[in-house]
Amino acid sequence: MATAAKIGIGSAINRVDGVEKVTGTARYAAEHPVENLLYGYIVEAAIAKGRIVSIDEEAARAVPGVVEVITHLNRPHVAWTDHSYQDELKIPGSPFRPLYDDRIQFSQQPIALVMAETFEAARYAASLVEVAYEAEAHNTDFEVAVGEKYVPKKKRSGYMAPKDRGDAAQAFADAPLKVSGDYRLPPEHHNPMEMFGSTVEWHDDGSITVHDKTQGSQVVQGYLASVFGFSKKKVRVLNPYVGGAFGSGLRPQHQVFLAVLAAKMLERSVRVTMTRNQMFSHAYRPQAIQSIALGAETTGKLTAIRNEATTSTSRYEDNMENVVTWGLMNYDCPNADAEYTVAQVDTATSADMRAPGAATGMTLFEIAIDEMAYEAKVDPLEFRLINYSPIDAMNGTPYTSKALREAFQEGAEAFGWSKRSAEARSMRDGKELVGWGCATGMWDAQFSKTSASAKLTANGHLEVACATSDIGTGSYTVMTLVAADTLGLPPEQITAKLGDSDLPTAPVEGGSWGAASSGAAVQLACQAVGKKLLKAAGKIAGAPLGEATIDDVLFEDGCIVLKDAPTVRVPFGDAMRAADLTQIEEEETAAPGFGDMWKGMHKSKNTHSAIFAEVKVDEELGVIRVTRIVDAVAAGRIINPKTARSQILGGVVMGMGMALHEETFPDHRLGRWMNHNFGEYHVPVHADIHDIQVIFVDEPDPEVTPLGVKGLGEIGIVGTAAAIANAIYHATGKRVRSLPITIDKILD
Amino acid sequence: MPTAVNTATYAAVPIGTVPTTLTINGETRTRAIEPWTTLLDLLREGEDLIGTKKGCDHGQCGACTVLIDERRINSCLKLAVTLDGADITTIEGLGQPGDLHPLQSAFCNHDAFQCGYCTPGQICSAQGLINEGKAKTRDEVRELMSGNLCRCGAYSNIVDAVLDVIGEQA
């Protein structure tokens, strides 16, 4: 039906916001010029627990240019109920309140904000604020905290309790082959390249415009309104460009609270930016211990799965993740049980970081699976196929689609897996040991109620808008392609707007639901415009489209075209002129259950991936290089293969960080992160990245979401570290059960 | 804990300014600059040249890379007053919308970024790399671009883009 030149869903086009990004004209939160701006610099607590006895601000106030030092003692009124501080994530507990009282709940907690006419004066004056504390005993050692692990009474929304089946304890006891052990993941920090920052414009009528680094402008709008007592109409939050977030911007962060607090108190425009060091003061991926026990027949058929995990949270909130469910869902095994608990440490509350729960729980589980494959003397890929479950084995429900088998086949072929020699330490390239490993990845295919508008003007320009965010995910481009596809216009004639709390309602961008949800909303809004166009065309003299209904026409090259007589074409402008319309604007909401989605209502919805990794390990030095990765992804329909590939590349690279580099170290005496900078918190760099191949497996799925889209933000990281860990075992014969796998663990 | 050095006396003394002449993207300007202001903060807060990004302020991430007299440098590590007479090129000086530099086009075509925050630094660094004339192969580009972090993980696309431009110029 479509002409060859048509650009729409499935077209690999350049990111539509690319030119702004490569020319430095894209303005991020801390980059909006405002007259008479004040700069705020955060003073952080030096102890992990206790109270503030006194704050000596005299020297700070004496610095020329300093306007105010804001602390819990002189701050303006803020809300006092926990409910007022709750955000969209609704984590059970008592959310942190900056500058609320004298209590210290974690090291690096913001305790004062120095306001000055220049950034430098604020920074210097902040160094002069002297704080006396009364310290209490703290514990930041998770290994100690797990002694008091517990199941939170109130569950976080989205938490899926594991379901046991059969008798896993007995089956494990009876199993001819057994693998069991404790697997560990350390705390990791998101470290987006842009530091958390907010620019607050104070207006004379007491309203504010907030440029914020967030994954959800409307979440921040709601939070600021409820915490500071603004009417929502008086708070507009903008985030058209976000310099990465990876989950750290799902909840309003404290710099936006502090910036608005200062703006309200001083009735001035304000900018507050965290330093890189201060970026370690809040969200981080929880530390985890996972105890996995697997039983199998000598054939490699799994007979028992026992999966227990504990992750870290703070003293004041119960952050929960889905850690133990993945292995139970993915593998055909008659007996399985699992338990998930949390344990409290004196840090800020842990947070969602790219594929929260799965990146931890599926990755560690996939290392155990590899161990069992060796125990059974079965090829690790073959082992996964022997235990393949076409249905969700934990919930007993079919999937809307699961092309993991195809992912294994295509990935293995691209990688050359069949040439692998089975034994560990059996492959070599000069001085380096070579290892090949594989793993499975899994994530949820989610959909969230989202609204969008579409506005067509008579000159043929279309604007689509939605309050979603583009944190590097490609949302602008996705919205553009869906609109182009639906109304048959070239991308150059379409503008996508997002990142503004004034736009049609959208949830926070996360969980990989963005493209599926905002894409569906944009499609609905464009279809509504299409219907109006057809109606308008009815006013054209002679009615060239006759009695055609919306099912009888298609939209192509800016024209309404009769499907049965494609030579009959009505340009949009002609139709609008005939009906005396200068523009057509429609807003629609896409909600779960729409289209064919109802058929999938009681089915499981997941993305899957098959990851293959090659490592080369210097036997003398223990240096590990990840020389090749093939990631075959089954994620439904791909809207833009170009940006989609980039999302997977990014997930794989972060998975390489998880495998080899990333770890935040606490100093337990001080209760403080030690390596809070890019010099000591290691992330992958150019030199670490070799050959990464991304494959998208064909997986049509109209039941999962209206567009058949499953989402790609998370799946790239899940399992990647396991494939690398398993390749390292194959290379060296050394099984490392705690990530990251650093040189010391190889040489140990 | 921050320690207060000479608090009583130093803090009360206005820091003063030093007249400094800089050529930025071909335009020469003289500014009264406080000695504690980095080139990065001068560009971003003083000149509204926000294309130069602050990612760490410690010379650890490369987001603030600019070219000074054709050489790439972390602008967060340079005090602006030490640059009197220097010729500075930022991302805004390399190319503009509608008139893109070859590296800017190549970055778009290879999708060599996601969030875009490290991008101006990557591009300025790549131009510095090309000026140095050392990198010819993929391995050399990877090694010599390793001071520029990209948390979105666009590394392989960035190298493809840089190699494209090096290839055109070779």
TrEMBL record, chain A:
Domain named Aldehyde oxidase/xanthine dehydrogenase a/b hammerhead: residues: 23-137
Pfam families membership: Ald_Xan_dh_C, MoCoBD_1, MoCoBD_2
Molecular function, one GO term: iron ion binding
Classification via InterPro entries: Ald_Oxase/Xan_DH_a/b, Ald_Oxase/Xan_DH_a/b_sf, Ald_Oxase/xanthine_DH-like, AldOxase/xan_DH_MoCoBD1, AldOxase/xan_DH_MoCoBD2, AldOxase/xan_DH_Mopterin-bd_sf
Domain of life: Bacteria
PANTHER family, per the entry: DEHYDROGENASE, XANTHINE DEHYDROGENASE
This protein's name: Xanthine dehydrogenase family protein molybdopterin-binding subunit
From TrEMBL, chain B:
Example GO molecular function: metal ion binding
CDD domains, per database record: fer2
InterPro entries linked: 2Fe-2S-bd (IPR002888), 2Fe-2S-bd_dom_sf (IPR036884), 2Fe-2S_ferredoxin-like_sf (IPR036010), 2Fe-2S_ferredoxin-type (IPR001041), 2Fe2S_fd_BS (IPR006058), Ald_DH_CS_CYS (IPR016160), Aldehyde_Oxdr_Iron-Sulfur (IPR052914), Beta-grasp_dom_sf (IPR012675)
Residue ranges annotated for the 2Fe-2S ferredoxin-type domain, each copy included: 18-94
Gene3D superfamilies given in the database record: 3.10.20.30, [2Fe-2S]-binding domain
Record keywords: 2Fe-2S, Iron, Iron-sulfur, Metal-binding, Oxidoreductase
PROSITE patterns in the record: 2FE2S_FER_1 (PS00197), 2FE2S_FER_2 (PS51085), ALDEHYDE_DEHYDR_CYS (PS00070)
Coiled coil: none
Pfam families assigned: Fer2, Fer2_2
Listed name of the protein: 2Fe-2S iron-sulfur cluster binding domain-containing protein
Originating organism: Alterirhizorhabdus solaris
Lineage: Bacteria, Pseudomonadati, Pseudomonadota, Alphaproteobacteria, Sphingomonadales
